[in-house]
From TrEMBL:
Protein name: ABC transporter permease
Membrane topology (UniProt): Multi-pass membrane protein
Keywords for the protein's UniProt record, in alphabetical order: Antibiotic resistance, Membrane, Transmembrane, Transmembrane helix
Pfam short name (any one): ABC2_membrane
The organism of origin for this protein: Nonomuraea spiralis
Entry-linked InterPro entries: ABC2_TM, ABC_2_transport, Nod_factor_ABC_transporter
Residue stretches spanning the membrane: 21-43, 55-75, 96-121, 133-154, 161-180, 217-237
Length: 246
């Protein structure tokens, strides 16, 4: 079983690296945002620069999870190879596990430009141990977004999936405080922020890379969203299986 998972993971990564524009898009936009907003305005403040680096790291990772995964899943469903793999006796687990692992790899790659900008052009400070904890928190916070990406990709054709993923991604990222700190946003946005999953993921990362105490409501809602997204992705897979292969 592990060899099948590795084979599917390798396949997904090779497909992504052959057309790397998706990887570049998810990694360069957060780095450009760092250069435009964080470096000139908060680059000399170690606490603010560290938190902003963590936020924009997750912005890129979230893009890979939601937009990248939904696009590849929906495109694969339109290719003859995908129906064939579903007829194989191994079952869905190796394919789905390989897809999720490859997405985690792409999420981690997307944070590299932001880390470079934060290290070279700001006063952000982090120890190696906290960096590892931050990356683990990033992966954990990305789980519901990978599931959301699966749900979108399994329920919509490729053109619609990409549009819907972008519509979901940007408002959730903004309200969650990944672009601007929630404290400087309008009161209504600040009051909603703890209830979106991106805020819970950001709180998890901030707590991992600094001494910030996470908002318990945001963490609870992150868990709630993970359960909802898992149920939705499971339903979408079974619905697609029954509709296309029954």
């Amino acid at each position: 079983m592990s060899s099948l998972i590795l084979a599917h993971t390798r396949l997904r990564l090779v497909e992504q690296f052959r057309v790397p524009i998706g990887i570049l898009a998810s990694s360069l936009f957060p780095a450009i945002s760092m250069l435009a907003f964080v470096v000139p305005f908060a680059g000399e403040d170690p606490v603010a620069a560290t938190s902003a680096t963590g936020s924009l790291m997750f912005f890129g990772a979230m893009s890979s999870a939601v937009i990248g995964l939904s696009a590849t899943v929906s495109q694969d469903r339109e290719q003859p190879w995908d129906p064939y793999t579903r007829t194989l006796p191994a079952g869905p687990f190796p394919r789905l596990a390989g897809r999720m692992i490859s997405t985690v790899v792409l999420m981690l790659l997307s944070v590299v430009p932001v880390l470079v900008v934060g290290a070279l052009l700001t006063e952000a400070v982090i120890t190696p141990g906290r960096l590892v904890l931050g990356l683990l928190a990033l992966i954990a916070g990305g789980v519901p977004f990978m599931l959301i990406g699966l749900f979108i990709g399994l329920t919509l054709p490729s053109k619609a999936a990409l549009a819907v993923a972008q519509i979901v991604f940007f408002p959730v990222a903004i309200v969650g405080g990944l672009i601007l700190p929630p404290q400087i946003m309008p009161d209504i946005v600040e009051s909603i922020s703890p209830y979106v999953p991106s805020r819970g993921a950001a709180e998890l990362i901030w707590a991992a890379i600094s001494d910030v105490r996470p908002d318990p409501v945001a963490l609870i809602m992150l868990g709630v969203w993970t359960v909802i997204a898992a149920a939705a992705a499971t339903w979408a897979y079974r619905h697609d299986e029954g509709r296309r292969f029954a």
